[in-house]
Amino acid sequence: MSKIQKQSRRARLLFQFFFALTPIAVCYYWLTVETPYDFLTSRGIIQLSYDFDSYTQLPFTLTTRILAVVASLLLCSIIMYALTVLIRLFRNYEKNEIFTLENANYYQLLGYSVFYWVGASVIYGALMSVILSFNNPPGERMLAISFVGMDFLTIVFGFIVLIISWVMKEGYTLADENSHTI
């Protein structure tokens, strides 16, 4: 087994682990955050991505938690889609299928998933601001939409991945033409 195959197997197994862990972690986070059962954030293992006090001073209701889980799992589905593509890509690398049209298509799908992630993140942030402030009295509910610098960098990264996929497709086409030339 070559070094590429060995490392690809490790990467694929890691991506499969993250694929299984991601929805479990999302559900755990929203069902336990701001409760006595939230030992991960209370011990500093996980940093909160939200300043809940800026949305509400009230404790979360079960409805708020379930809506937050559903919204987060929708965003999480993009991550899981990208992980599925990565699993397929590294499975091909394990089989020593490196420069193939299929792999170039996987890179293209990864590039698109980065764009989906940015768009969905903007929608997710707005949706979460409504969900987290929903139990506030009328006049204190909020809708916050944001596009931060990291979103711009993520879009640039998406373009880079797409360009790599186009280069790989062109390289595959040239290699295929050369293999048929006498």
Q: Label the structural class.
A: mainly alpha
Number of helices: 5
The total count of strands amounts to 0
Terminal CA distance reads 33 Å
- Low-pLDDT segments, ≥5 res: none
Query: Quick check: average pLDDT?
Result: 91
Strand content is under 5%
> What does the overall shape look like?
elongated
Multimer state: single chain
Radius of gyration: 21 Å
Task: Name the helix and strand elements from N-terminus to C-terminus, one letter apiece.
Answer: HHHHH
Fold and architecture overview:
Helix 1 runs antiparallel to helix 3 and helix 4 (101-133) runs antiparallel to helix 5. This protein is 72% helix and 0% strand. The protein has helices at 3-32, 39-42, 62-94, 101-133, 149-179.
Key features of this structure:
72% helix; mainly alpha; 0% strand; 5 helices; 182 residues; elongated
Task: Briefly characterize the structure.
The chain has 182 residues and is mostly helical.
Topology of helices and strands:
Blueprint (H helix, E strand, L loop, with lengths): L2 H30 L6 H4 L19 H33 L6 H33 L15 H31 L3
